[in-house]
Amino acid sequence: MKIERLIGIITILQQQKRVTAPYLAEKFEVSRRTINRDIDDICKAGIPIVTTQGVNGGISIMEGFSLDTTVFTEQELTAIFTGLKSLDSVSNSASAEKLAQKIGGNSAIKLADNMIIDLSSFYKDDLALKIDVIKPAMKESKCISFHYCYPKGETDKLIEPHLIVFKWSDWYVFGFCKARQDFRMYKLRRLWDLQITDESYTARDIPEEKKQFGSHMTDDYIITAVYDPSVKYRLVEEHGHACFTVQEDGKLYTEWGFTTQKGALEWFLSFGAKVKVLEPPEMVELIKSTLDEIKKQYET
């Protein structure tokens, strides 16, 4: 939270011109010694801070020095508070709310209240607990272990956690798998029995190609299909309002690329009788055979 405290101190100095060390210590709930160290860090960052003694003394930014008049505009503070509030949705604390109150940007806080970003999906309590385990593990450079469930089965994993990632509307831990000797992404909702181990690690340089999460996933498996107009909302939600052509009979014609045949099968089956796949022939046959297997389960 140090960087957030430094931001708060700079903002207060811009707004109030001069404050005392005890005032800042009380506002940020730290010692005067910590505030003094923070002031030194701010000076090292290039912002000249002046301290004066006496009745009207205190801490202030050097007269005549300005960072575009204000360090943070109202719009910038709004963006900061909105981002922090979104992280509160996957945390058991209310750090953004506390920081906003300390900084005192009331107008920005009010504007930030106009946007709600909930990153917690449907399992906030479980998600927050997992993130609360992974974060200190990364800070202390400790490996984590967990049981993982994925399409090929279940397994126990031991990884060096490097990043917590929110992508594709879900949360992942990105780390170096000890067994695979490579970087991997693991979906948090698929893992349990998460623990910090005693095994330490040295942070590795992440190859640039590994930072492009999902770049290996292509969508060159082209499938054409027609959908019932009643499911138009799902097509728009997935690919946008211009992703289909309306036929004379009102059906919605699509020609999309999918990453895998399995993923495409799951997508089409989720529509039941509201879709008909036209091409390629092997996809049509796969859907038919899958439906036959489903039918057999209800005939016994």
CATH topology of the largest domain: SH3 type barrels
What profile does the largest beta sheet have? 5 strands, antiparallel
Low-confidence stretches: none
Question: What percent of residues adopt helix (DSSP H or I)?
Answer: 40-55%
Count of distinct strands:
12
What would the principal axes of the Cα set say about the shape? elongated
Number of separate helices: 11
Total number of domains? 4
Instruction: Indicate the CATH class of the largest domain.
Output: Mainly Beta
Strand order of the largest sheet: 7-6-5-4-8
Please tell me how large the radius of gyration is: 27 Å
Report the mean per-residue pLDDT as an integer. Answer: 85
The SS-based structural class is: alpha+beta
Instruction: Return the CATH architecture of the largest domain.
Output: Roll
Report the order of strands and helices.
HEHHEEHHHHEEEEEHEHEEHEH
Task: Give the DSSP E fraction (strand runs of 2 or more residues).
Answer: 25-35%
Q: Calculate the terminal CA-CA distance, rounded to whole Å.
A: 61 Å
Q: Can you tell me about this structure?
A:
With 300 residues, the protein is an alpha+beta fold. It has four domains: 60 residues, Orthogonal Bundle (Arc Repressor Mutant, subunit A), CATH 1.10.10.10; 39 residues, no CATH class; 88 residues, SH3 type barrels, CATH 2.30.30; 77 residues, no CATH class. 40% of the residues lie in helices and 26% in strands. It has eleven helices and twelve strands. Strands 7-6-5-4-8 form a five-stranded antiparallel β-sheet. The protein has a four-stranded antiparallel β-sheet with strand order 10-11-9-12. A three-stranded antiparallel β-sheet has the order 1-3-2. Strand 4 and strand 5 form a beta hairpin. The longest helix has 17 residues. The protein is elongated and about 90 Å long.
